[in-house]
């Protein structure tokens, strides 16, 4: 098992109450801070009881999980509480549940880990978690009902105020892949914009002058789904940085091309470059916030090499904030009704033993810290010409996706540029793009 001294140094610093302040998104911009260290972390899934463990939160078990994560040399975790437990009534945020979350954040800091907190869960690993005041005879559309939006804003303000000022807090995210809820909560792109703007403002208000990142996340339909109401523009322009969740099962990518294919090995890199194309700020950072090796899409024997390739290829992107693996621990098979792939996504198995993929990730992170990669020159861009109704051309199986992957497999390092910016000389110069190519 590789144990990185970075984690030990972080634990010592945290114990002294002197965790280094994290750079703001502006400080993270590559042209202003070319030696900004990449962040490497994991999405924390409790080993005992999965997220149902919030019903009987055990600090000792949580601390053991977090110490194991820190032992891999990772520097941060993303954590999730359950919405119904935090806010069982529209006008009630439970102090005890908020205190549990704050305790977990403090335990992570003591282990040498910085923490990103997701507020509204929402959706986790194929299960939806709605408070009862949004359901049955009290049904409210969580994206469009004014009272439901106000309640979620109040929750985020409360969480922000409870967590503000902790030196190891990275920030507050609205929730995990909220666009998974659109099937039961119909919404338009304009309504999504209003929803996100309202909740982002509430999160900022909660964190106050202490600052911290304020972000939101969406699963891949936001980028590849024709007419999906969560848009690439919303992902790439709202919040302090862009989060991407490039999963190999989206568009059946791994099965379509093969688990060892260039398309799979470069998927997180591609997702990062696609996100940069939709941003109005050429220097906006991108966070690969979820990526993982789900079986059977990625067989266990291929998972270590997949992790190495994914992290190294993404690390070559200018403007990358970091990579956060999904997830820390396998779901115990004593828990029923999960999709098969959810049981094998962890770096640790359900007994807490590190898997081969954990060692591969730890070694890759250690290598990248020892010799930080210089961002790859991407002076040639492929033009992406699509409408909201043809967004799928940029996803696995789509003509644009395949053109970009061919160029990458041939040794190129293509950027992505939207058709509407392909003739904007000032914009292209800001991104370092010298040649624009339209896919044939």
UniProtKB/TrEMBL annotation:
Keywords: Hydrolase
Originating species: Streptomyces cyaneochromogenes
Official protein name in the record: Glycosyl hydrolase
Amino acid composition bias (Polar residues), ranges on this chain: 15-25
Region (Disordered): 1-36
Signal peptide: none
SUPFAM superfamilies hit by this protein: (Trans)glycosidases
Gene Ontology MF annotations: hydrolase activity
């Amino acid at each position: 098992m590789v144990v990185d001294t970075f984690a030990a140094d972080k634990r010592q610093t945290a114990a002294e109450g002197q965790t280094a302040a994290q750079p703001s998104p502006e400080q993270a911009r590559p042209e202003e801070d070319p030696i900004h260290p990449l962040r490497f972390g994991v999405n924390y899934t409790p080993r005992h009881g999965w997220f149902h463990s919030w019903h009987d939160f055990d600090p000792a078990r949580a601390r053991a999980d977090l110490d194991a994560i820190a032992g891999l040399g990772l520097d941060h975790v993303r954590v999730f509480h359950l919405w119904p437990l935090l806010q069982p009534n529209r006008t009630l945020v439970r102090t005890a549940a908020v205190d549990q979350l704050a305790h977990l954040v403090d335990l992570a800091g003591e282990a040498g880990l910085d923490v990103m907190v997701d507020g509204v869960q929402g959706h986790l690993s194929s299960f939806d978690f709605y408070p009862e005041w949004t359901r049955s005879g009290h049904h409210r559309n969580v994206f469009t009902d004014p009272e439901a939006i106000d309640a979620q804003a109040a929750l985020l303000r409360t969480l922000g105020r409870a967590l503000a000022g902790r030196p190891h807090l990275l920030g507050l995210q609205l929730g995990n892949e909220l666009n998974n809820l659109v099937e039961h909560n119909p919404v338009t792109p304009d309504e999504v914009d209003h929803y996100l703007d309202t909740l982002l403002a509430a999160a900022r208000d909660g964190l106050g002058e202490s600052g911290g990142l304020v972000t939101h996340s969406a699963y891949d339909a936001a980028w590849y789904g024709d007419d999906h109401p969560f848009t690439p523009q919303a992902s790439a322009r709202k919040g302090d940085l862009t989060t991407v969740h490039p999963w190999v099962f989206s568009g059946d990518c791994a099965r379509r091309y093969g688990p060892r294919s260039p398309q799979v090995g470069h998927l997180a890199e591609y997702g990062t470059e696609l996100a940069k194309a939709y941003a109005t700020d050429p220097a906006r950072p991108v966070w690969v916030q979820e990526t993982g090796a789900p079986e059977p899409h990625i067989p266990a024997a291929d998972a270590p090499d997949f992790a190495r390739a994914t992290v190294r290829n993404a690390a070559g992107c200018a403007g990358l904030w970091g990579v956060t693996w999904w997830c820390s621990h396998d779901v115990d098979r004593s828990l029923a009704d999960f999709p098969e792939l959810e049981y094998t996504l962890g770096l640790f198995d359900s007994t807490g033993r590190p898997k081969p993929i954990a060692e591969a990730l730890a070694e890759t992170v250690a290598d990248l810290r020892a010799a930080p990669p210089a961002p790859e020159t991407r002076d040639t861009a492929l033009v992406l010409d699509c409408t909201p109704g043809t967004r799928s051309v940029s996803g696995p199986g789509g003509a644009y996706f395949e053109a970009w992957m061919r160029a990458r497999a041939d040794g190129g390092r293509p950027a992505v540029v939207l058709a509407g910016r392909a003739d904007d000389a000032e914009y292209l110069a800001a991104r370092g793009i010298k040649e624009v190519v339209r896919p044939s």
